[in-house]
Amino acid sequence: MRKIGIQGIKGSYHDQVAKEYFGDSVEINEFLSFDELADSVVIGSSDFGIMAIENSIAGSIIPNYALIDNLNLNIVGEYFVNINHQLMVLPGVDFNDIQTVSSHPMALLQCKKFFKDFPKISLIEAKDTAEEAKRISENKIKNVGAIASVEASKLYELNIIHKNIQTIEKNETRFVIVSKQRMSSSVDSDKASLKFSLSHKTGSLASVLTILSDYNLNLTKIQSLPIIEFPWKYSFFIDTTFNDMNDFNKAIELIGHKSESLKLLGIYKNRMK
C-alpha cells in the first residue's frame, strides 16, 4: 500500500486530493507543516507527497517552490480542486456567539471579503483547516468558528452556519504530487516544470520566452524567487505545456545554453481544465 504524505489531517483539502488522485487504497501520513511533509518524502516514509502550490484567488505559495527545489523533489503530477469554504461551529452555537474564526492562513485570505462585514470577529491563523475543526469539536469550544470543508464538518460533527464564504465562487487550488524519484515520462505527459536563472543582460528573459514560442511550448505559469546568496538576483520557476516531446527537448537544450543554470523539476500530465 502506497504511503501518501499530506499537509493537514483527515477532512482537509490535501486529504481530498490524496483520495481522488490515488484512490482509497492508500495509507495517509498526516503532517501539520509542509516542511515535515517534504522531509517525509525525502527520507522515504512517504512514497509521494501532496503540496498546494497556488490558488486562483490568493496566488502562489512561495515557500513550497523553495521546498521542492531545495530538497530536490520531483513533480510527478498535478491536481486541481475547487475550494468551497464553509464556516462551521459546534451544534447549538449561533453566529452572534462567535468571537474568533480560526483556519489556515490561505483559507482566511480567500474569505477575507466575507469577514469585512463583521469587524468584531477576530481572524486567527492556524496550521490546518480540518485540524481547527477537530480542535473545536474535541474541546467543545463555543465562541470559535472554523473555516473548512463540508467533509470536515461531517467528520467532526460541526454545523455549517454560512456556506461557500470564499470571495470568488470559482476558487481553485492547484496541488502538485511530489516524489523523491523522478518518474519516467509517459506517452500522455504534456506539461513540465522548470527552474532557471539568468544574467542581468538585457533581453535574457525575453530570449527564453522566444524559445518557448518558437517550439510551440505554452507558458502557463511564471514565478520569480530571489537567490538568497546573491542580492537582487532571481530564479524563475515556470510551467509549460507542449504537444511534442521532441520540440520540448529541443527547447530545453536551447534554454540551457541561454541560462546560467537550468533544472527540470518534473514532466507530467496536464490536468488544467
Give short descriptive properties of this protein.
273 residues; alpha/beta; 9 helices; elongated
Concise overview:
The chain is an alpha/beta fold and 273 residues long. Helix content is 30%, strand content 34%.
Model description:
The chain is of the alpha/beta class and 273 residues long. Strands 1, 2, 3, 4, 5 and 11 form a six-stranded mixed sheet that branches. It has a five-stranded mixed sheet with strand order 8-7-9-6-10. The model has no long low-confidence stretch (mean pLDDT 94).
What is the count of helical runs? 9
Oligomeric category: single chain
- Helix content percent band: 25-40%
- How would you spell out the order of helices and strands? EHEHEEHEEEHHEHEHEEEHEEHE
Beta-strand percent range: 25-35%
Structural class label: alpha/beta
> How much is the average pLDDT?
94
- Measured distance between first and last alpha carbons: 30 Å
What spatial form do the alpha-carbon principal axes imply?
A: elongated
According to DSSP, the number of beta strands is 15
Poorly predicted runs are none
Radius of gyration: 21 Å
Largest β-sheet summary = 6 strands, mixed
Structural topology:
Layout: E1 2-7, H1 13-22, E2 26-31, H2 34-43, E3 48-55, E4 59-60, H3 62-70, E5 74-82, E6 86-89, E7 100-103, H4 105-110, H5 112-115, E8 122-125, H6 129-139, E9 144-148, H7 150-155, E10 159-162, E11 172-179, E12 191-197, H8 204-214, E13 218-226, E14 234-241, H9 245-258, E15 261-268
Parallel strand pairs: 1-2, 1-3, 7-8, 7-9
Antiparallel strand pairs: 3-4, 3-11, 5-11, 6-9, 6-10, 12-14, 12-15, 13-14
